[in-house]
Amino acid sequence: LMCEQSLSTYSFSPLQYNRYQCYGAEECVLQMGGVLCPTPGCGAGLLPEPEVRKIVCEPSNGMGCGHPPFIK
Ligand SMILES: [Zn+2]
């Protein structure tokens, strides 16, 4: 899969990549069951844990916009 190949090019762990580093890899996010932040101009790839219903674009990592939690 191209998705896996792109992941391997980053030094981040796959989990960190999934959550925080999917800018410009929207298709990869969607393939993994993630969603894109609905905030205009943000578009961060968000990949919640399978059991998590509310998705947060966390600003704590320095990349999220702080969009209020939303349901996938
Ligand atoms: Zn966002």
How would you summarize the topology of this molecule?
Elements: H1 2-8, H2 14-20, H3 26-31, E1 35-36, E2 45-46, E3 54-55, E4 70-71
Antiparallel strand pairs: 1-2, 3-4
The structure holds zinc ion.
Residues 37, 39, 42, 44, 57, 64-65, 67 line the site of zinc ion.
GO cellular component, one term: cytosol
InterPro entries: Parkin
GO molecular function: ubiquitin-protein transferase activity
Note the main attributes of this structure:
two-stranded antiparallel ribbon; Parkin; binds zinc ion; two-stranded antiparallel sheet; 4 strands; globular; ubiquitin-protein transferase activity; 11% strand; alpha+beta; single chain
Question: Can you characterise this structure?
Answer:
The chain is α+β, with helices and mostly antiparallel strands and 72 residues long. It has one domain. The chain contains three helices and four strands, in the order αααββββ. The protein has helices at residues 2-8, 14-20, 26-31, and strands spanning 35-36, 45-46, 54-55, 70-71. The protein has a two-stranded antiparallel ribbon with strand order 1-2. It is globular and about 20 Å long. The protein starts with a helix and ends with a strand. The structure holds zinc ion. Zinc ion binds at residues 37, 39, 42, 44, 57, 64-65, 67.
Number of strands: 4
Helical percent range?
25-40%
Q: How many structural domains does the protein architecture include?
A: 1
The N- and C-terminal alpha carbons lie at a distance of 25 Å
Radius of gyration: 12 Å
Note the run of SSEs as H and E. HHHEEEE
GO molecular function, one term: ubiquitin-protein transferase activity
InterPro entries: Parkin
